[in-house]
Amino acid sequence: MSAARLFAGVVVIAACALFGSVRNAEALRRLKTAEGLRSDISEAEHLLTGGRKDLFAICETLSFRGACADLWRDISNEMQNGSGFYTAFSKARKPDCGREAAAELERLAALLGKGDAAAESERLRDAAKRLGAIVENMQKNRAEKCRLTSSLSLLLGLCLALLLI
Predict the structure, then answer these.
(1) pTM for the complete prediction?
(2) HEC secondary structure over the chain
(3) CA 125 – CA 55 distance, rounded (Å)
(4) What b/e sequence results for 121-138 when a residue is b if at least 16 CB atoms lie within 10 Å of its CB, and e otherwise?
(5) How far is CA 111 from CA 17, 59, 63, 64, 137, in A?
(6) What would the pLDDT profile of 138-152 be if each residue is shown by its tens digit?
(7) Residue 116 CB burial class (10 angstroms; 0-12, 13-18, ≥19)
(8) What is the number of structural domains in the chain?
(9) CA-based max dimension of the chain
(10) Are 43 and 72 in contact (CB under 8 A)?
């Protein structure tokens, strides 16, 4: 067995382990983004129930202090150009928050801007509850998926290293 093959085997194992770590970091980022989105939607509901803001003003407020400020900034910019909420949402850059959270955000966007303040507030409250459940589910599954991803990527690296050696 040559030193070059041994070195290549170690590099393959390290690369596969790094891949697993990157995947785990991406899952954590999606979880944090979904948590921030839930927080933003809860804040939007509080702003609306305070009777202080319409959807455009809420998006502007969240574009400065929201966890997903880029999303709200894009929406408020499009609404400023005369687009409705859903059209503005469709054109905005969406945060990477996982499939379930993204689907809930899409569902909420399709419903907002079509009713009075009480109906909008109820929609926001319901969406925040559903996003809370999605985040809770993501948190429960995260530890298991991270362990699985780490183990599989390390095993893949070991298998490839054995083939090289």
Answers:
(1) 0.79
(2) CCHHHHHHHHHHHHHHHHHHHHHHHHHHHHHHHHHHHHHHHHHHHHHHHCCCCCHHHHHHHHHHHCCCHHHHHHHHHHHHCCCCHHHHHHHCCCCCCCHHHHHHHHHHHHHCCCCCHHHHHHHHHHHHHHHHHHHHHHHHHHHHHHHHHHHHHHHHHHHHHHHHC
(3) 14
(4) bebbbbbbebbbebbeeb
(5) 43, 15, 20, 24, 24
(6) 888 877 776 777 676
(7) exposed
(8) 1
(9) 75
(10) no
CB 112 within 8 A of CB 86: yes
- Kindly state the tokens that stand for 77: 């910019």
Distance CA 132, CA 40 (A): 12
Q: Is 122 left (phi over 0), alpha (psi -120 to 50) or beta?
A: alpha
Which residues, at least 6 apart from 41, have a Cβ–Cβ distance to it below 8 Å?
108, 124, 127, 128, 131
Q: Is the pLDDT of residue 21 over 70?
A: yes
- Report how far residue 152's alpha carbon sits from residue 158's, in angstroms, rounded to the nearest whole number: 10
CB atoms under 10 Å from CB of 119, counted, come to 12
Q: Which domain holds residue 96?
A: 3-164
Residue 47 near residue 53, CB atoms below 8 Å: yes
Percent of residues, the chain, with pLDDT higher than 90: 24
